[in-house]
Amino acid sequence: MSHISTDACWPFYHTIFPELPEGEGLDAFFAEADEVLTRNQQFVWLMEAMHLDYPNAADRQRYVDFIRSRSGLIRKHLVGLAIVMPSMLSRLMCRSIFLLGPPACPYTVGKNADAATSWCIARLKEEGLEVPKNLTKSDPNIVGLPGDKVRAIRAAASE
C-alpha cells in the first residue's frame, strides 16, 4: 500500500504515505490526484509522507512533470497544499522538487500534522470555502482515515 486517502471532510482532502510510492504505487497516486483535480471543485490537500526514503532521480522528475502538466488544474482547484514530512532532509528534498516544478498554488512544507491542518483550515477560510465542523486537527478518526493504522504509521515515523 503506497498511500491512504480520504475526502470524508471535503473540501479537505487527506493523503498519508506510509511508504515511498514507487512504480505502480506512484502511478496509483497520480491517477488519484487526476481524479481529485478533475472534480472541478476547490479544495485543500494535506499530504503526510511518513517514510524516510527519498525518490530516485527518475521519480523526482515524474513529480516535477506531473506538477507542470497539471498546473492549470492545480491553479484553478487546489487552494492550498500542506505537506508533512518527518525529517529535515525529507523536507529539503520536497522543497528541491518544488524549486524545479513549484505547484501553482499556495503550499507549506512542515513536520507537524496539526499545524498543517490549521494551515489548511486557514486557506479554506481565506478562499471563502466551508470548513467542515469537525475538522479541528488531524485526528485520523475525524478525517475518515483508519485511526489505529494512522497512529501506528505516525508513531513509527517519529522514532
Features:
globular; alpha/beta; 5 strands; 48% helix; 159 residues; 5-stranded mixed sheet; Protein-Tyrosine Phosphatase, Chain A; single chain
Q: How many discrete structural domains?
A: 1
Low-confidence stretches: none
The CATH architecture comes to Alpha-Beta Complex
Q: How many DSSP H or I helices?
A: 7
Helical proportion? 40-55%
Q: Strand portion, in percent?
A: 15-25%
Q: Radius of gyration from the CA trace? A: 14 Å
What's the topology here?
Elements: E1 4-9, E2 12-17, H1 24-37, E3 43-49, H2 57-69, H3 71-77, E4 78-84, H4 88-100, E5 107-110, H5 113-126, H6 140-143, H7 147-158
Parallel strand pairs: 2-3, 3-4, 4-5
Antiparallel strand pairs: 1-2
Structural notes for this entry:
The protein is an alpha/beta fold. The protein has one domain: Alpha-Beta Complex (Protein-Tyrosine Phosphatase, Chain A). The chain has helices spanning 24-37, 57-69, 71-77, 88-100, 113-126, 140-143, 147-158; strands spanning 4-9, 12-17, 43-49, 78-84, 107-110. It has a five-stranded mixed sheet with strand order 1-2-3-4-5, with helices on both faces.
